[in-house]
Hints:
- The chain is about 65% helix and about 5% strand.
- The chain is built from 14 helices and 4 strands.
- The protein has helices at about 1-15, 15-55, 65-85, 95-105, 110-130, 135-145, 155, 160-170, 200-215, 230-245, 250-265, 285-290, 300-315, 320-335; strands at about 175-180, 180-185, 220, 225.
- It is flat, with a radius of gyration of 41 Å.
Amino acid sequence: MSNYIIRSGLRRAFGDSVNRWLQCSRQAILSYRTKKIASSILAIAMVFTIGGCTNQAPNPSNEPIQQQTDVHNNEQAIMDNYNTLLQKGDVSIPEIINFIDVNLSAVSQLNGSTMIIGLEKVQYDRLPKMQDKFSDEAVQKIVAKGYQNGVDYVNSIQNKQVKDLLLETKNSGYKIETAEGMFFPVIDYSFYKKYHANMTGDIAAFFDIMAVESDKTPIKDAALIISWAEILKRAQAQEQFIKDYSNSAKVEDMRQQLRRYATFAMYGGNNTPLFSYETKQIVPEAKKVYLETKFDETNGSFSKAMLGYLEVLKKNNYRLTNEVQEYRNKVVEEIR
Length: 336
């Protein structure tokens, strides 16, 4: 009642000014209350929103990262186990091969190459002892007799000890070679073809080149058993590897291989020399092949050496002279 009287009195005293003032006051109060309520609603909504997020499922975008982490950890565990296996002195080569066969598909090509190179090293390191097992005369006679039966000669051998030795040789990634009437194991690089897709490009190329070598050895009984053209073809493939994969873990092995073939190309073999022992003249077949072959010195040291060799040979009428001898002695050592 008193408020009504006051408002009435004010209206009479001040007229329309008071009416406008009162109306503005009501609007201001209403606006303030509205903003206050809106702020409260917004705050409550934010609380529910944040609370709701914590109860949602994990963000799918994080799943690939977790999967990558799991794969990496699993791969590292495989490599750790592999290295532990290699360090065991009593581990057999078939055990190593089995580990690779089981786990190779679960690692990268880089780690796969590491595993395969590790296997090759074990084969190389144990090869002398394996060869010693074949040095016994009785073993040689039994193997020689069985060898006459052809490819499946192992099954034709009755002696259990020798048969087990041959099976161990095969299961360890070796093959039997023969030279000068003796039988002995060598690394069978064709064995590695099954791993081709799991190697890096350089390691796959290396084992491909070495498979050609082990499938048909270039020399036996001090005589070349492949053609002069094949010698150059293999040497140029080795040279190309060195050019293409200069940083490969196997580049030094390939350089050694290329020096070997450079010796074949410039010397021949003791029983198949490049120059006639009687006339000192170059073998006609070799001369023809060498002159027809294209050598590009930008490909590497072998091609450069062969171009220089042909120049020296031409100057000396393709005969073995002191100048020719000095040239080949020098450049073979420079093959890189």
